[in-house]
Amino acid sequence: MDKIEVTFTLNEVEVTRSIAADSRLLDLLRYECGETGTKEGCGEGECGACCVLLDGLPVNSCLVPAFQVCGRSVHTAESARPTDLEKLNASGTAQCGACSPGVVMVTRFLTQNPDVARDVDLRQFMSGNLCRCTGYDGILEGVKSVLGDHERIDSDEGPA
Amino acid sequence: MSVGDSLPRIDGIDKLGGRTRYVDDIAMPGMLHAGTVRAPVARGVVKKIRFDPGVNWDKFVIADHKDLPGENVVATIQNDMPALVDREIRYKHEPVLLLAHRSIRKLREALAAVRVEVEALPAVADPLAPLAPEQVQHGDDNVFKRIDIRKGDPAAVFRDAPHVVEGLYYTGAQEHLYIEPNGVISYFEAGRLVVAGSMQCPYYMLDALTRAFGRTRESFRVIQLPTGGGFGGKEEFPSILAIHAALLAEKSGAPVKLVYDRVEDMAASTKRHPGVVKHRTALDRDGKLLAMEIDVVLDGGAYVTLSPVVLSRGALHACGAYSCDNVHVHAEARLTNSPPYGAFRGFGAPQTIFALERHMDVAAGKLGLKPEELRRCNLLKPGDTMATGQVYREKTDLAALLDRALTYAGYETKRREHEVFNSTHPYLRRGVGMASFMHGAGFTGGGEVYLASEVEVEAAADGSINVLTAQCDMGQGCDTTLAQVAADRLGVAVDAVKAVRPDTSIVPNSGPTVASRTIMVVGKLVSRACGDLLRQVAGRDDISGEKAIAAIRAWHDGNPGGRLIGRAKYAKPVELDWDEDAYQGDAYATYGWASYVAEIEVDLRTYVVRAVDFVALQEVGKTVNPAIAAGQIQGGVAQGIGWALYESVALEDGAMSNTQMTNYVIPCCGDLPPIRVYFEEQPSQYGPRGAKGIGELPMDGPAPAIVNAVCQALKINVNETPLTPERLMEHLEFADHG
Amino acid sequence: MNILQPRDLKEALDMLAADAESMTPIAGGTDLMVSWPHKPHDGLCLLDLSSLKEELGSIVVTDDYVELGALVTYWEVIRDERLADLLPLLREAASQVGAIQIQTRGTWAGNIAHGSPGADGVTVLMAYDAEVVLASAAGDVVTPLDSYYTGYKLTVRRPDQLIRAIRIPLRSRGVQWFHKVGARTAQAISKVGVAMVREDSSDAPAAWRVTANSVMPYVCRGRNLEQELASGRIFSSPEEIRRVLDADVAPIDDIRSTAEYRATVLSRLIYMQLAG
Fold first, then answer.
1. Does C272 sit within 8 Å of B605, measured CB to CB?
2. What does the alpha-carbon distance between residue B649 and residue B653 come to, in Å, rounded to a whole number?
3. Domain boundaries B447-569, corresponding CATH code
């Protein structure tokens, strides 16, 4: 397999790597950059464990070809704000932790886009992050805790 | 004072921030990637293994059954399952050959370049179908285990019973779908083979290694790494990976990482035993249970593995939380040529409790009683005996517990509102259903005696405390809660206490992380070990806090360089009496008791059922960490709802064919309502500060509660899981209404 | 594996004109990249369209039509307030494609090009009578989306052509409805999906467009049903709708669902929507 060179910004730091041409962003992060915080749960873009922010938007890194990341910015769970992690943890967002980094990145997206956070039904919005441990209540409590009192449509609070 | 505090999980920040390192996050110099060549048929004999000449096989490490220094078995109960196929294939995907290479890319290419040529043999697909002689592969009838539980004289009662109700109930397989797949890494260190990875039971793995290699325990070191979910799927199954990786590590002299990708994990790993349960029940005119005849068949897959114990728990929960004087439970685990079915949260109880709790609604319907009425008049009262003769001595009034669950759920109001709603809405229908049940905590009967668990608690000179057990945190939070138990017992800050990583070179064997035993059985031992430690430093165990720390410091001053270790070993409570041969007596030390209420909505356009409200009420002795406990209940309920409505294992040649997350569907966030959890506490003498086991309890109730709700809404009888929209359509459009 | 990264559309089209048969265009990759390690990559030549965002990434709104550039994603449509009123089914379908992580990468053109029989985006685009603008070195060709497919994953697109844009006419629409049935609320491939649009005009009878997915080898129109609806027929049961649909659709059993379920549910959904 031929090699390509990819230069991109990872958690605010510019990095360059020479990688196999058919690498996924997930492989680039985990194996070439040693940022193992992003997990591979399924390899098919279903579970969201591999979710990172690409130019500020949540993506499944198992579906992003590494060659498309040149010149772009990627943020992973390792860049999360400690106060966000504290709030998530205090709400029971993490149990086994395998889905957690993906959840953290979607949370980050919401904090950076309060207009989106205001518009969406949180339960629906978090549906791209599959979790087998929590039943999702701990995750939703955590995300709400981080978002604070933004006005938001939330099916949990609607009529039964 | 620590126990009872909803402390944030101590490992949570690292997990959330991506700093926790699971097995696939680890790389070692010179590491090889390993893969498994698998059997292509459900049953057969290996004729030849062909290696494509286009691959340079000299660059690969290759291992087969002949390379095993010890016995070619994966040690569990009967040791009938080989670690690698010798000649006989008993299930599709059975491991035949192992390959390892530095490059994972070359490994993947090579795996596709090996062909296992077989002569197929007649496979068994249906555990209920009559057997042809050439299909017998175990004993003389393919039955792995039979269990009979007898009480009174049911046959006599049926003759004159005013009501006899029969029912047949089917439960499907279930895939654990832990978000982190199975994986281990094996390497040499100080002349010893180390196996580290994702697991629930390091000592099970150690025993499997000693057997397969024919060596002592000291020749190996097994370490549990942070584990991304288990649910039973990493109880016995990873022993296979351990043997495989260690074999390759020994053959190559290099570290070997063996991680399954999602497709392989789903195809080849254990699943929940599919079950068929037949009920024949005699009742009097008021609905009192007079006799129960229950026939249980569990599909065990190709080898015995854990089926006898799954069957045991299933049989012991088959009569549930009800009082009945005449009982016969006959249970069998049978062979089919499928990948062996294995441990999955609930361990046989979800299957038999589904059947029982559906049957109670069916019986109520036949007698013209409300489902809650039938339950109230049969739930155990103090002095009543369970199916094995165990006396109900708990303080909880189970009928009142049910009533409280119904109150929290707003059951009566909902029933009234639904009647109106259902008669006016063009296509939506709503219903509520319930389940009352229990789950035995700890190993069955003599199991804990057999395990002979030991724990240690070590106090350092600076006052820091280490808790040494083999209990593995797989998300259920025992690293936090066991630390809380010790901190509470010693009266010290929980920050000063750490549950050390389960490592067989460091921790004693406190038994497996299964059977809802970690907090109750092992936690109790931790508490006793703290007591032992205090007696060593102070001659008494009723000091705590500053006094305890001072005594610890003083001990270290008087014993420089010494290790201060408190110990405890399991001792069977003298009042518990279990007869394994007769299956009579105290089956479990104690039980969690629960009543769950599910509200559903069905869309008659699409037959899609969704849960819209869920109440989970349980009496659990004491919650060590209420937030963690609530999270366990919510997660278990979600898994139960998944099993009831969403999760379907499709089989081809006996093995799972829908091996992608897009086709094996677990509930996502948007599918579930908030899961409302309520705890009640009647402290039990068997656990630390009264705590009982809760890990599996929430798995037992949701499926029958959900299906009962659907049946109530639509006035039908559906007796199977998963109740997919396609199946519901079949029932409504083509089947007789119940 | 070869990667070609044209700097603009002209270069991309020239590359295709030279050697189209060997190239696989890739935009967001949410179809192509699924289970990527399991797919063979040697000999694959990917034509990376992602850097053509400037030329192909716009949403243009005029009085007569909305044009989605080939690289416009589901998420961009969801967040474009203009489209909420003009073409509400786009947002509805887009928000039920996968989840946020797929919506930010998946493109409407990719959904058309991939040709999945269960395509959610295609279902609503076809109900809106969208046209596909196919570009090549030889110029543009415009094809109605409902003539785009000729068989299972077979289209009229020549190998040297790329979808450049999707053009959706703006008409007076009295009925706009979409429903997707998946195995769960989100992150689900469609078991069956349907869209119905009624185009009203002051000087002609109403015209209906009924599209369905997962019931034919490609997203299709239910033309018989459309004619019945246009003629003013009132249906009194789902079975009546089913009888008409049986001439338009031929669902199959597959890993996700059954033919009987798909046909039954499609009829029931349409019936209830019309009756309601």
1. yes
2. 13
3. 3.30.365.10
For the cut 60, the answer to whether the pLDDT of residue B646 exceeds it is yes
What is the domain partition of chain B in residue ranges?
23-121+182-259, 275-443+583-737, 447-569
Residues A16-30 pLDDT 10s: 999 999 999 999 999
Q: Which residue of C has its CA nearest to A48?
A: C101
Nearest to C187 among B263, B427, B668 (CB): B668
Long-range pairs for B402-407 at CB < 8 Å and ≥24 separation? Answer: B402/B372, B402/B375, B402/B376, B402/B434, B402/B436, B402/B595, B403/B372, B403/B376, B404/B595, B404/B617, B404/B678, B404/B680, B405/B434, B405/B595, B405/B596, B405/B597, B405/B615, B405/B617, B405/B678, B406/B372, B406/B434, B406/B595, B406/B597
Q: Look up the pTM and report it.
A: 0.98
pLDDT above 90 (res A89): yes
Residues 71-100 of A with CB under 8 A from C: none
Give the pairing type, strands C2-4 and C45-48: parallel
- Asked whether the domain spanning B447-569 has the same topology as the one spanning B275-443+583-737, the reply is yes
Q: Which amino acid is at B386?
A: M
Domain extents for chain A? 3-76, 79-148
Predicted pLDDT of residue B77:
84
Q: List chain C residues with CB under 8 Å of A22.
A: 1, 36, 41, 44
Give B367-407 pLDDT, tens digit per residue: 999 999 999 999 999 999 999 999 999 999 999 999 999 99
User: B177 to chain C: which residues are within 8 Å by CB?
Assistant: none
pLDDT at A1: 87
- Give B545-571 pLDDT, tens digit per residue: 999 999 999 999 999 999 999 999 999
Does the beta-carbon distance from A62 to C48 stay under 8 Å? no
DSSP 8-state code for residue B570: -
Range A3-76: architecture per CATH:
Roll (3.10)
Write the pLDDT tens digit of every residue in B216-270. 999 999 999 999 999 999 999 999 999 999 999 999 999 999 999 999 999 999 9
Q: Tokens representing A53?
A: 């922010």
pLDDT 10s digits, C83-121: 999 999 999 999 999 999 999 999 999 999 999 999 999
Examine the pLDDT at C73 and tell me if it is beyond 80.
yes
Q: Could you please report the per-residue DSSP string of A90-118?
A: HTT--SS-SSHHHHHHHHHHHHH-HHHHH
Report pLDDT digits (tens) over C136-177: 999 999 999 999 999 999 999 999 999 999 999 999 999 999
Sheet (strand A73-75) strand order = A13-20, A3-10, A73-75, A51-54, A57-60
B69 touches chain A (CB under 8 A): no
pLDDT-derived band at A151 (thresholds 50, 70, 90) equals: very low
B23-121+182-259: what fold?
Aldehyde Oxidoreductase; domain 3 (3.90.1170)
What is the architecture of the domain spanning A79-148?
Orthogonal Bundle (1.10)
Q: CB-CB: which of A39, A95, A128 is closest to B631? A: A95
Q: Tell which CATH architecture fits domain B275-443+583-737.
A: 2-Layer Sandwich (3.30)
Distances (CA, A) of A124 to B649, C73, C79, C95: 26, 19, 16, 9
Q: Which chains touch A (3 or more CB pairs under 8 A)?
A: B, C
CB contact under 8 A, B668 and C189: no
Query: What distance in Å separates the CA atoms of residue B12 and residue B24, rounded to the nearest whole number?
Result: 19
Chain C residues whose CB is inside 8 A of the A60 CB are 101-102, 105
| Interchain CB contact of B672 with C (< 8 Å) | no
Residue C50, φ and ψ in degrees, nearest 5: -60, -25
The shortest CB-CB distance from B605 to any of C256, C258, C265 is to C265
What's the complex ipTM?
0.97
Q: Which residues of C touch B667 (CB under 8 A)?
A: 184
